[in-house]
Structures are given as structure tokens and as C-alpha cells.
Amino acid sequence: MPEHKVKIFVKARFDVIWDNLIDKIYHPEKYLDEIRSVEIVENESDHVLRIVRFHDSTWQELKELIVYDKSSGIIVYRLVDHPSFEGETINICRTTNEIYHSELQFEINWKLKDSNQFESEHDKEISYNKLQTAIQQMKTICEEAELIQN
After folding, report:
1. Which InterPro entries does the record cross-reference, listed alphabetically (predicted)?
2. Is residue 44 part of a domain?
3. Which of 30, 31, 51, 119 has its CA 20 to 30 A from that of 144?
4. Cβ-count burial 29-68 (b if 16+ within 10 Å, e if not)
């Protein structure tokens, strides 16, 4: 998968977004339709190790080491033992000058392990579209949660 970055503004407080980003670690199927199940292998104070399985059997399961820091608003999902890719996915939430207006950024930084392989433009477009869909879904969920809390 190529490297992509998507940034949007969300009409919700930082804490509302952060709570949903943390919930996505443990319950990604609530945020991404493609996910069939998640297994939490380790749940420590400084990291989570999980295995994600997909509905589409052509997709390989992902083992991810996840670290997060609320003070910086950053969550890093690092690939572990993936047969084809290495890298990480990053979610960043930042406050703005407005209370009910935060910035949300999703990045995917995956590289093929085999330098002799190449991804098609079609595959790159699919990964970018999935990243766009994921951030839009999170925006919708967070803005709805903010409305409920107010």
C-alpha cells in the first residue's frame, strides 16, 4: 500500500474524538465495515497487541502493535509479522482555537517488503479511498456523539 494522509475538521471536542479513537482499537468493526473480528492478544498500560480479521477472505489478517498518547493525540498502529507489508497507520487528533472544532488526521505508511514488487495504480486508489471512508465514518460518529452529549 502506498503512503497516504487525509485531514479533516470535526465538529466535536477533543475528548469525544479521543474516546472514539480508543474504542476503535478494541472494537474496529464498529468503525469499519470490512472487519469481521478482532482478537486482543495483549492489553498493557503502554500498548495493545491485536489481530484483525476481515470479511473478505482475500485480505490477509493484520497483527498490530498499538501505542497511544492522549497528551499528543496520537495513536500508532504498527504492523507486526505481516507477510507482504511493513509500516504503520497513524491517527492524530488535535485541538483548534474553537472548543467544538477539532482536527483529525489519518495516515497510512505501508511499504512492500519485497522491493521487486509494485502496486498497481488501482490498488493505490483503493487504499486511498478506504482511508477517506474511514476518516469520514469517524467524523460522522464523533459529531453524532457530540450532539448526544450536549
Report:
1. AtaL (IPR015075), START-like_dom_sf (IPR023393)
2. no
3. 51
4. bebeeebeebeeeeeeeeebbbebebeeeeeeebbbbbeb
